[in-house]
Automatic annotation (TrEMBL):
Origin species: Phellinidium pouzarii
Keyword Nucleotide-binding part of the UniProt annotation: yes
GO cellular component, one term: plasma membrane
UniProt keyword list: GTP-binding, Hydrolase, Lipoprotein, Magnesium, Membrane, Metal-binding, Methylation, Nucleotide-binding, Prenylation
BP terms from Gene Ontology: signal transduction
Membrane topology note: Lipid-anchor
Record's keyword annotation contains Transmembrane: no
Subcellular location: Cell membrane
Broad class of where this protein is predominantly found: membrane
Family: Belongs to the small GTPase superfamily. Rheb family.
InterPro entries assigned: P-loop_NTPase (IPR027417), Small_GTP-bd (IPR005225), Small_GTPase (IPR001806), Small_GTPase_Ras-type (IPR020849)
A GO term, aspect molecular function: GTP binding
Protein name per the record: GTP-binding protein rhb1
Length: 186
């Protein structure tokens, strides 16, 4: 039975500082919202998620906030099955940063497209990033797009359903091969 198979998937959560990456991951895994801000160094949380009748053991890597000058850590690209790229709907800079991070992943993995969900976080706040521009961008890179609020518990689980769907869309029924498996150019 398909539901008896437990597949491992590694998901990296990337984006600017303070956009709510840790809050999203904590709300999903621990069902708890953190009001205070503690900058993340790196944290991996694990949760079993059911998607289309298949159980996935997901390692969710909550990364430190990036900026345009950050170098993409190879461990956030190699061996990763899917990406959650987070901006805050209240910060246009954080939306622009998502585009930069996406381009870095694409050039790092050497794939034209990667399994990816673009997440507009803090949807309970006053928006400056419109739904239209975010949706249009996501379409242009063949990614899913969703807005969430960890604070108000909106669409939190949906993010991880979408990323698993994006992973399976590109490699249905595969043996769990990530988008980049670890060739290093010396
Ligand atoms: N209003 C609102 N605030 C949020 C939401 N999610 C997170 N926050 C707040 O935003 C701040 C930053 O959240 P974090 O989850 O620590 O952000 P981060 O992206 O992990 O930050 P770094 O570790 O620096 O990368 C905290 O004070 C959170 O309480 C949300 O959905 N709505």
């Amino acid at each position: 039975m398909a539901g008896d198979i437990l597949r491992k998937r590694k998901i990296a959560v990337l984006g600017s500082r303070s956009v709510g990456k840790s809050s999203l991951v904590f709300k999903f895994v621990e069902d708890h919202f953190i009001e205070s801000y503690y900058p993340t160094i790196e944290n991996t949380l694990t949760k079993t998620v059911s998607n289309n009748g298949v159980e996935y053991e997901c390692d969710i890597i909550d990364t430190a906030g990036q900026d345009e000058y950050s170098i993409l850590n190879q461990k956030h690209a190699i061996g990763i099955h899917g990406f959650v790229l987070v901006y805050s709907v209240a910060s246009h800079n954080s939306f622009e940063l998502v585009k930069i991070v996406h381009d870095k992943i694409v050039s790092f993995t050497g794939n034209e497209t990667v399994p990816c969900v673009i997440v507009g976080s803090k949807s309970d706040l006053q928006r400056v990033v419109t739904c239209e521009e975010a949706n249009e961008y996501a379409k242009s890179i063949e990614a899913s797009w969703i807005e969430t609020s960890a604070k108000s518990n909106v669409n939190v689980g949906k993010v991880f359903d979408l990323v698993l769907t994006e992973i399976e869309k590109r490699a249905p029924h595969n043996q769990g091969q990530p988008v980049a498996k670890g060739c290093l150019i010396m």
